[in-house]
Amino acid sequence: MLMPPREMEGVLLVDKPGDHTSHDVVARLRGKLKMRRIGHAGTLDPMATGLLIILVGKATSVSQYLISLDKEYEGTIELGKVTDTQDADGEVMETRPIPPLTETDVQAAIKTFLGDQYQTPPMYSAIKIAGVPLYKSARKGEEIVREPRFIRVMSWDILRFAPPQIDFRLRCTKGTYVRTLAHDLGQKLGCGAHLSALRRTATDKFNVAQALTLDQLQALSLPEIEKRLIPARDAVPSFVR
């Protein structure tokens, strides 16, 4: 009697493209690996690129431990324009003049966002209230009361200051909406702002430099992909092992 083929198991690091949702990435990998039991440890907005931790087979059971890890991002904020989604995927709701800000002015404003704080999730998010995702209510023009969530911003540095654009690097805890930080910074500066680009560069010890693109994965054989899998035990924090 033939034994069924052994399912792959482990953690796969993928560099998500900007034209895919996190679910799209999972769907493509299910097709490539011919497996249903595949998930991810922390979604990225459709606009965002970068590190997406994919869990294959029995490794899906460690999702809670990997989702909780700290994140690092690089991105671009555009001053002077406020969008309904707080990022470049939304409609511009307001345009304001940009005051003669210096890099020192902006860095001083950024410092007020460092440390422990509560952040109100944006309406355009997948959080469910009464079983309905917030973004569905937002599309109907409804405003739902959201509970603020605890987050921590460990560092937020300016990489390039060229108004109306500001490139940055950010380290934060899970559940932080970077586009909301960009929006709130714009409000503090008095000119409004939105997130125009975002890339997740790291999740704890995992870096996007270790990841493969979907095109690269598509070109690999299944045995080659299996060699890229990180055992779940090696991926989770040490206190879990």
Short characterization:
By secondary structure, the protein is of the alpha+beta class. The chain has helices at residues 22-33, 63-67, 103-111, 134-139, 178-189, 214-219, 222-228, 232-235, and strands at 10-16, 38-40, 49-56, 71-79, 81-83, 92-95, 115-119, 128-129, 132-133, 149-162, 165-172, 193-203, 206-207, 212-213.
Describe what you observe in this structure.
With 241 residues, the chain is α+β, with helices and mostly antiparallel strands. It folds into 2 domains: 10-68 and 204-240, Pseudouridine synthase (2-Layer Sandwich); 71-203, Pseudouridine synthase. The protein has 8 helices and 14 strands. The strands form 3 sheets. Strands 1, 2, 3, 4, 7, 10, 11, 12, 13 and 14 form a 10-stranded mixed sheet that branches. Strands 5-6 form a two-stranded antiparallel sheet. Strand 10 (149-162) and strand 11 form a beta hairpin. The longest helix has 12 residues, at 22-33. The radius of gyration is 19 Å and the shape is globular. The two termini are 36 Å apart. The mean pLDDT is 93.
Q: Over all CA atoms, what is the radius of gyration?
A: 19 Å
> How many strands, which pairing sense, and closed or not: the largest β-sheet?
10 strands, mixed
The overall strand count is 14
Kindly report the CATH topology of the largest domain.
Pseudouridine synthase
Number of helix segments?
A: 8
Order of helices and strands: EHEEHEEEHEEEHEEHEEEHHH
Number of domain modules = 2
- Give start-end ranges of low-pLDDT stretches: none
Shape: globular
Strand portion, in percent?
Answer: 25-35%
Mean pLDDT: 93
Distance between the termini: 36 Å
By CATH, the architecture of the largest domain is named 2-Layer Sandwich
Helix content: 25-40%
Secondary structure class reads alpha+beta
Question: CATH-wise, what's the superfamily of the largest domain?
Answer: Pseudouridine synthase
CATH class of the largest domain: Alpha Beta
